Amino acid sequence: MTDPYLTLVTSPLTKGLARRIGLPRPAPLARFRPGQPLLAGPALVVSGPASAADADAVAQALVGWDVDVRRHPTPGTSYAAVVVVLTGLTHPGELSDPVLAAGATLRSLARGGRVVTVSRASTAEVAPAVAAARQGVDGLLRSLAKELRGGATGNGIVLADGVGADAPSALGALRFFLSTRSAFVSGQLLAVDADAGAPPADWDVPLAGRVAVVTGAARGIGAAIAATLARDGATVVAVDVPAAGEALAAVANRARGTALQLDVTAPDAGRRILEHALARHGGLDIVIHNAGILRDKLLVNMKPERWDAVLAVNVAAQLRINTELLTSGEFTRAPRIVSLASTSGIAGNRGQTNYAASKGGVIGMVRATAPLLTAFGGTANAVAPGFIETEMTARMPFAQREIARRANSLLQGGRPEDVAETVAFLAAPQSGGIVGQVLRVCGQNLVGA
Amino acid sequence: MAAPTNATAQPAAPEGATGTALPRRAVVVGGNRLPFARAGGPYAGASNQDLLTAALDGLVARFGLQGERIGEVAAGAVLKHSRDFNLTRECVLGSALSPQTPAYDLQQACATGLEAVVGLANKIRLGQLESGIAAGVDSASDAPIAVSDGLRHALLALARAKTPRQKLAAIAGLRPRDLAPAAPRIDEPRTGLSMGEHQALTTAQWGITRAAQDELALASHTRLAAAYDAGFFDDLVTGFRGLTRDQNLRPDTSLAKLAALPPAFGRDLAEPATMTAGNSTPLTDGAAAVLLASDDWAAARGLPALAVVVDAESGAVDFVHGGDGLLMAPVFAVPRLLERNGLTLADFDIVEIHEAFASTVLATLAAWADADFGRERLGLDGAFGSVDPDRLNVTGSSLAAGHPFAATGGRIVATAAKILAERKAARAGTPDADRPVRALLSVCAAGGMGVTAILEAA
Questions:
Q1: How far is CA A291 from CA A216, A286, A338, in A?
Q2: CA dihedral sign of residues B168, B172, B173, B175
Q3: CB contact under 8 A, A249 and B57
Q4: Would residue A5 show up in a list of annotated catalytic residues for this protein?
Q5: Is the pLDDT of residue B185 over 80?
Q6: Distance between CA B2 and CA B10 in Å, rounded?
Q7: SS3 for B220-277, per residue?
Q8: Least confident interval from A118-127, A337-346, B15-24
């Protein structure tokens, strides 16, 4: 799970050579550590006149998080973050002032800097010029994110009409994109559809008092999710098949939670998960559907058992467990469902028709499940990892792995904790207005948009 | 059961509950064990400490006991290195339990694990403990090998020696034969016979047939495999070193395959040898732990109370001079235990008899069913009774699972407690709902000993 190329182009001995011969140079990404300040330097908030009120609200929130906020670019200042508020756009012509002002700061953007746009959703209900301006943000943000260097990322928050720039989920998303929790998330536009959700009592432990179940928790991304949810204050029930029991016990003990050995495809899996969470921890608030399997084969050679096993574990089990939870009457305390999708389920991948069908299925599932939860302040969302450094990807053939690793704007693979941070963000109380979405953790992979 | 001292905090004793008058109950919350491995197999590189620590950590994970101060952990091993001084406490320190958890070692041959359960349950019933973990471990792979007495005496003298002359003198007395290690023995020191050879005598004495032994062995494998397939062990077993099911388990074995095995014990006797590798337990590595608690302690943590530890009775036979077999002590202990509790064999929903050898179980049943034996040796009016085969070792036992000596009690107690809880839950709403659901446990042990106990669904 090491990246020798990254070491080559960043170590003092060889980085000069790498620069001279023009090798692409991925930057080591800073990851979140508890106690870290939200930003390591000042943040610039810019907007056009029509978006000024929303920009003020954003600036005020940043001040509340102890960020050094500037409202006008000063030449020579290195910003840790630039927030471009574009919520009041009525015509594409209004993009130029705020966007170019932001652009002028990019040359001196700090290493690992952040660019975040805040805009509104382009729909068929608004005037063509408004829709054009709004949709324009999509294209400009995705392109801008590809320009960034030094581990900087660019992401956008897209508010539905009627949702304020200071809505809990808008600010929660802003905080996530600014923080090192989103180190491997770039080029993404996250929709905030509702005013729902509430800021946590303590941003350091946003999941305090919440009981979370993580399936497939014994290793890799699942183990990282269990650890991250526990760090954020949740009581974790770590679930995996009995065959993974030894690793599962270690994960549960590190997270100070409980281990539940269970095959998620068992007909009574949902009931057993619920019974365990209720009896041991007094409730169930968060379900992370992470358990998944790969049985890659070209469709032309696909055996029914390979196809069926992938669909059964990766999506049918989630559907059955969700039904059990939603009909139990016990999953009602602003519940959160976060499912693991994949960029393969969005863009497709040769040899993965079964896997992509299951992961595409997950995306459809969360979209249709989310409305069933809104009555209880609940949400369902998906996270789609790109190339993540795990035991699984370590087994890929060298050339294929090296191509997959570099085919993104950050020129490197992500880590399991990058996925885990995004899962924890969507599971948090402030994310109540983010419903039925898919958030990619892929470093802006070149495929899968 | 007597009225509890604190009526609001204690669940009422169910009508017809058995047990001696004590202030409160000790309950089995659940258990955890490693899959048992054949000696020299996947755990060959693991020490007793590794195995027991893993079993404890799996238990901690199952019940969320990280950092929890448990009242006491009692455990032991039969094959024990001298470095395993304070073995249990060392394992506690290496586990995720609170380091403020006290521990002690005990050893009663193959009954070690069950004796640990009994001792801790009694302390809980007396109010000396709120919680306890009873455990056992054995590694036949990592068995201790002792040096010869000659070498040992020389080494001790060397350690005491102060001058070069004394040191030289200390090692001068060594002879080449002293350098050969003393082989590990599981033979009975007083008879020189192995456990298998002892049991072969008992097998012949009671006329236990090869066919009956093979049938019992087959049932053990079939039932254990079915229980695994049904997910019964999902919350009883945690994998270790790549092993996720008992290595000795042969789901595809058959009477024909068992019948083809050559005899392993009793080949020198006048009677035909009937004991084979298939109907005897192999040497095995593993560890098992059981979480015991007061009702209050379990309820405060949202933990289940599967079964109550009702009573226990130990026994021993004079296998050296008398006519009783080495492994027949439970034959005498169980009647005493049942008499004290006013019960007969028919009052038990399940009976767990440790399958040291298939013929141990069959000889035990034969003795209980024998009217002369009942009158002459047990002091009864006739036969003690019989056990319905459908109630005996219903999820398999040592023949299929394997038998890491001190780990067997923990395996049996946790398994039986879970079966009792399931049986009781299945009875809810039926006219039978209030009738106690009971298990009789019987574990024979080297040295002519045995420990037996009664569990009842909580």
A1: 4, 15, 12
A2: positive
A3: yes
A4: no
A5: no
A6: 12
A7: HHHHHHHHHHCCHHHHCECCECCECCCCCCCCCCCHHHHHCCCEEECCCCCCCCCEEC
A8: B15-24
Residue among A246, A257, A266 minimizing CB distance to B238: A246
Which residue of B33, B43, B244 to mutate against A (max A Cβ within 10 Å)?
B244
H or E element at residue B455: strand B449-457
Coil/strand/helix, residue B293: strand
Question: What is the pTM for the complete model shown?
Answer: 0.90
> Do the beta carbons of residue A111 and residue A80 sit within 8 Å?
no
Ordered DSSP codes for B305-350: --EEEEEEEEEE--TTTSSS-TT-HHHHHHHHHHHHHT--GGG-SE
Interface contact B231-A266, CB threshold 8 A: yes
CA distances from B442 to B113, B149, B408 (A): 12, 37, 11
Residue B183 has a pLDDT of 61
Tally Cβ neighbours within 10 Å of residue A343: 23
Buried b (16+ CB within 10 A) or exposed e, A211-224: bbbbbbbbbbbbbb
Identity (one letter) of the amino acid at B279? Answer: N
Cross-chain residue pair B244–A243, CB shorter than 8 Å: yes
Render pLDDT for A53-105 as a digit per residue (tens, 0 to 9): 999 999 999 999 999 999 999 988 999 999 999 999 999 999 999 999 999 99
| B66, B241, B302: residue with CB nearest A256 | B66
State the residue for tokens 């009217």. Answer: B371
CB-CB under 8 Å, A263 with B302? no
Residue B367: exposure state from Cβ atoms within 10 A (0-12, 13-18, ≥19): buried
CA angle at B401 for the pair B400 and B406, rounded to the nearest 5°? 135
